[in-house]
Amino acid sequence: YSFDTEVFSHMPYKNDWLAYCPTIIDPPVAPPTAPSFVICEVPKQDFEDIKRSISNVSVNSTKLTLAKQIIGTKKCFTVKQIAGIIELFSIESSRLEIALYSYDFCINTDDYYQLTETFSTTGSKDKLLEFIRTK
After folding, report:
1. By CB count within 10 A, which of 8, 37, 62, 120 is most buried?
2. Could you tell me how far CA 129 lies from the centroid of its own chain?
3. In this predicted model, which residue has the larger pLDDT, 34 or 104?
4. What is the C-alpha end-to-end distance of the chain, expressed in Å?
5. 103 neighbors 109 (Cβ within 8 angstroms)
6. Contact criterion met (CB below 8 Å) for 42 and 81
7. Long-range pairs for 82-90: beta carbons < 8 A, 24 or more residues apart
């Protein structure tokens, strides 16, 4: 387009043409915007409500079912939140079942080994660590 200035005899017209062409031929590109995404996490107040709901159930099998339902629905728990749910159970096998079930709904699985601290038996700790190793 710089060669097109030859059709203009008046210098201001040439300059106007040179200023105009880049905006049409090479329009300015807007900078890319950051992608918008939702952070996956269960807010603190929701977690407190979840714990309260689970702890209000006295029958272990019902408590286990409710906990799994909530974990599967909310999906975005931290290891500390999962540990908080595990601590609501008094039966070791239920605690282990919740720990194994919750893995796929945890947002920081690199720290999942920390859940071994919630178990009182070595067997449960070993089962959890073996499960993590196979994932």
Report:
1. 8
2. 23
3. 104
4. 61
5. yes
6. yes
7. 82/106, 82/115, 83/114, 83/115, 83/117, 83/118, 84/47, 84/51, 85/50, 85/51, 85/54, 86/115, 86/118, 87/118, 88/51, 88/54, 88/55, 88/63, 89/60, 89/63, 89/64, 90/60
Segment 91-104, tens digit of pLDDT:
999 999 999 999 99
Q: Which two tokens stand for residue 63?
A: 């408590």
| Rounded distance between C-alpha atoms, residue 128 and residue 122, angstroms | 10
Give the tokens for residue 120. 């009182």
Secondary element (H or E) of residue 68: helix 60-74
Strand partners, 12: none
Which of the residue ranges 18-22, 42-46, 67-71 would you say has the lowest mean pLDDT? Answer: 18-22
